[in-house]
Amino acid sequence: MDIEQIIEIARMYYEQNLSQEDIALKSKISRATVSRALKDARERGFIRTVVISPSEVSQRLQDWLRTRFNLKFVAIAPSRTDTAASIDLVGQVAAAHLEATVTLDCVLGVAGGRTMLSLARQLKPADRPGVLVLPIMGGWIGQTAICASDVAREIAERWNARANVLFAPALVKDEIARQALLREEAIAEILHSASNADMAVIGIASVTLEVNAGDYVSGTGRISSRDVAELVKRGVVGETCAQFFDIKGRPVDVWNRTRTIAVPLEDLVKMPSVLAVGAGADKARAFLGACRMGIVKSLIVSEDLANEMQRLDALE
Questions:
Q1: CATH number of residue 20's parent domain
Q2: Domain range holding 36?
Q3: Residues 43 and 56 in one domain
């Protein structure tokens, strides 16, 4: 039995909740063959089960998010008082989701950030040589930066997949520098392929004057505290792929088109599957703006983040 058949049987069993007997009848194979295929899928790392007992509140939030923003998939992870623990739990749930949904010939675009790296590191080892993982943006250069290319390489290593690296910063000095980089064939090809990816996974940064703004400044290495103040003045609440937007989901074109090396926001909106991941109530305005823009098609977040998104949405 080939890998595609094994994956199809696993999907019928775990996603469609069909019994082994029903799968055997539908696929015209023996029940023993179904059982062997499921065992093979588990051993190859195609299946990962994460058991999270959702509270009544989180179930209501899932239903609200799915309906409010017309999302294909929503999962809410329990909140933790420790930020790192919340990020790891969201990463674990997101890793399980990717393992179940990424096809064997998928072109997967990825952004950078702590939650993205947590996701990548929690993927179970598997053999997926047909998967191509691409960074959808250049890299931030701050001391705490986790670049999209780092995430792409981590996923490729876990899955024995292919990955390309984007040797370019996320934000350059001016449009002249941007155009010069985009004339480089390797950079242009990666961004073109990433813009047409089958699926993308992104994090969303909060742009704020609050205390945690210092983390954002130190992480980017290209955006100063003065820049953050100007962004907030112009209504910016969030950033993804080095591009900015307000709480209503409108792009705020500060440097979006003139200094950014990344897949454009409009291409992300058109992409058939974009999963956004994040943790922490402090990111609610940013995630709310991204959902309103239409970038997000699936969402995996912590419960406190989802709860704050609902509260803010009712006020706007």
A1: 1.10.10.60
A2: 1-47
A3: no
| Residue 138 CB neighbour total at 10 angstroms | 27
Residue 48 has what pLDDT?
Answer: 60
Segments of the chain scoring below 70 in pLDDT: 15, 43, 45-55, 211-213
- CATH number, domain of 231, equals 3.40.50.1360
Q: Based on the domain organization, do 99 and 134 belong to the same domain?
A: yes
pLDDT digits 0-9 by tens, 47-93: 665 555 556 778 899 999 999 999 999 999 999 888 889 999 999 99
Angle at the Cα of 269 from the Cα atoms of 109 and 297, rounded to 5 degrees: 75
Helix 303-315 crosses helix 56-68 at what angle (to 10 degrees)?
Answer: 50
- Structural domain tally of the chain? 2
- Residues 204 and 290 both lie in one domain: yes
What tokens does 292 get?
């309103």
pLDDT recorded at residue 103 = 94
Cα 283 off chain centre by: 15
The CA distance from 146 to 111, in Å, is 9
Spell out the residues 6+ positions from residue 39 whose beta carbon is closer than 8 angstroms to its own: none
Closest to 297 (Cα-Cα) out of 74, 93, 63, 103: 74
In our burial notation (b when 16+ CB lie closer than 10 A, e otherwise), range 297-307 reads: bbbbbbbbbbb
> 49 Cβ partners below 8 Å, 6+ apart?
96
